[in-house]
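User: Now give one protein:

AI:
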Amino acid sequence: MLEYVDDFAYFMDNTRHKSLNTIQSYKRDVSQYIKYLNTNGITDISKTTKTTVLTYLLNLQNQGKATSTVSRTLASLRSFYLFIAQTGTQMPDPTQNLEAPHVEKKLPHILTTQEVDLLLDQPSKTDPKGIRDKAMLELLYATGIRVSELIALQLSDINLSIGFINCHSGKKERIIPIGNIAKAALKNYIENARIKMISSPETSLLFVNCNGTGLSRQGFWKIIKQYGKQAKISCDLTPHTLRHSFAAHLLENGADLKSIQEMLGHSDISSTQIYSHLMKSKLKDVYTKAHPRA
């Protein structure tokens, strides 16, 4: 049954138009499920039932997998059985009416504007790597894009004259405005640093590593951790922290949820509403500390 996996990934990409990260996660989940089936002597997908799926999910829980992992696995299997139906296999969907375990959504950590300023002031202003890092951090905070989207940007995706970037996620793309500070940092990088870092004049990637090739997510993770340590920011700083801070600071200053949703690239407004909950939580905290009868 493992022969299904690549076709399933193609289905998720070309029919469901999911992002690369989602496709990789779902493909991994389905591969592990099929290996489980093979181990238990099930070699025909049409022989699986609701009990099969439930037993597998319970097995994951017994292994100590996080509730979020079990919930995502069920979502992966729902998509997989939808794909199986597309192949013409006649069978009931064993994931139908199964409920995912409730995942407690944690409110994301948001940097203060002072912490953002401190973080963005850490890179060197003179050497090419520091100029590149400054441009990347400014762009992340200015647009709220994901790190996977950041490292995939092409030089042609940047329009400094108008002040927009063209961001790609899977087969979707969105246009996001950038402010003057991010524009200046990008202009400085493109004109004074990138030319010294690229391995070939034909290189189309916007950001490259010190070898002149594409950056990895892990590589950028190390970069932001280093600057967070230099800035003495105590929270567990990740690239997503800047994405969360971008959204929360926009909302705090009067932006509407729909606009923030479009800039973040959320397909569902419920994903963006977590920032409203965050603001309510912050207001409650302010009220409790400030009101004499709180």
The chain has two domains: 4-86, 113-287. The chain has a mean pLDDT of 86.
